[in-house]
Amino acid sequence: MTRRVGTAQRSNNERDKTVKKIMLRTVAVVSVAGTAIVGLGLASSSATAAALPAAVSLPPYYSQLDVTGDAMVTAEDLEIAGDSLGLTTASPDWSSVSILDTDADGELTILDLADLSQRIIYDDGPFELVEATVIDMQSAMNAGVASSQSITQEYLDRIEAYDRAVVPGGSRPLNSIITVNPKALDTAAEADEIRASQGMTSMLLGVPIALKDNYGTVDMVTTGGCACWNENQTTTDASMVSGLRSDGAVIMAKASLDEFAYGFVSEFSSFQEPGSTSLVASPYDTTKTAGGSSGGTGAAVAANFAALGFGTDTGGSIRVPSSYNQLVGVRPTVGLASRDGIIPLALSQDTGGPMARSVIDAAIALDAVVGVDEADPVTARQQGLVPDSYTSFLDPDALQGARIAFIPSMVGTNSGTVRLFSEATAALTAQGATIVPVTPPAGFAAVLNEGSGSTNEFRHDLDEYIATHLGPEVEARTLTDILATNSFVTSRRSIYEARNAVTDATYEAWAGDTGSHTVQIAAGKTLVTQMMEDLDLDAIVYPSTNAYGTQGTNMRLSPNTGMPSVTVPMGRTIEGESVPGSGVNLEFLGRDFDEGTLLGLAYAFEKTTGARTSPSLYGPLP
Length: 622
What we know:
The chain has 622 residues and is α/β, with parallel strands linked by helices.
């Protein structure tokens, strides 16, 4: 009896402390001074509607309890909730505030107010950079606890301390960054000024980003991982970079990659003597590759050297390093984001996309880079098919009622992967999804077995990039010139020579309007889409990789159909399995331009599993 009373009293004390803390936080939010908070909308009800940034799109958690009509939870919503405390279902005004009854007990109480206060993009508590999400950063910057300048500086400090060093417990450097932007802190200061005068104008305002070094940038050279192009200073940003800058992001660094995005090991020669190269290491196990070709982006984001990263994917180059480094990676529909200004590998399959530590961050990043671009005609396909914000799909209940298929042969036989995939499908089922094992239709093997365009298309597509974007100071302006420099990954000389020998006739027979590759990709899209229609599927799932190794031809399903995929951590291998402690990802594939559905499913899966871990070798700076 005494124990029961003690437990109840302790519970009441804890509740009192919680309520007091919430009320203090609420008072602080409502009363805090400063134009940054006014601009955000965290002001008293006297603030004008004009002060609210209309273009900010928030995930449902941060917007669905809005009762003032500005699509975000602000201090004004808290005031209304506070004034409505005690109202019940019998009250005349109940219908106008019933959405705030989050515990559904039929009365507005202090606990409902506490829940509401957690949904403001504002947090004046301690800020820890490691594993911080974009929401965390915006909350801290809105509260004045951190600034874009302080966050950017801390990332720069981490790069300086960790990237080219062998850390205790490690075996080799990460080598994840090629170039740091000398203007990063100036850009961050500009973002802080915007926040002070206008509020949080975008979810990316002041957020530091690392780009794979094949994205053109006006303030950093774009090497493509090759020393032959150390001087490639473009006069324009890549289209996707322009979108990020428009949203106020800080383009902080250029990440390492497998030279010209060729392979999965991320070996590059930029700014090294002829014949010398470096490899990107995984921050979880520096004896292993970070994957590729976007390995530098993968390692940098996983090691908390940037808030977000962008890579490119032709045959797996976003998804492989995402899987090896426990990240969320998005390979968008070919045509969702412009490739203009990105050094190409094979435009029949090339696409750029975000790599992030969470699905929310990936969705926020994707919002900034979509759009029709005349410079990349394939983007015309997206007209009318892109939502206002991908964050609107991020529902923790998104798996309820979903129909998801898997093809048993794509799971493979690796013991760790088989176990993790089984646990993943069990988690999907537990969240209300129906998991359907299917035998694929005739022709599916041809989809997976179609090769990459990286041989037959490379010289043709590279020549187009050189003609339109290559900086004037670069002397090596053909593949023949590049071979003559000896400033590249020289072990690939024969590969470059073979690409250089591809004739125009071979290119057209492969990638022309009626070329074999073009026809097969179209056939693959039709076949897989029809399979999804016939089975009423929301997605197809499969392991992205094994632990630090590919899984069959799984990586080819998305590029060989042009359909989008999202990869998300599903767990780690254990003792007795290959490479114990290694991350392996689950990949969701869906219909053209249905990234929103895939992100929603991945978000619900991420919420229920919490599979990502942070690399212990790269914790907070001392």
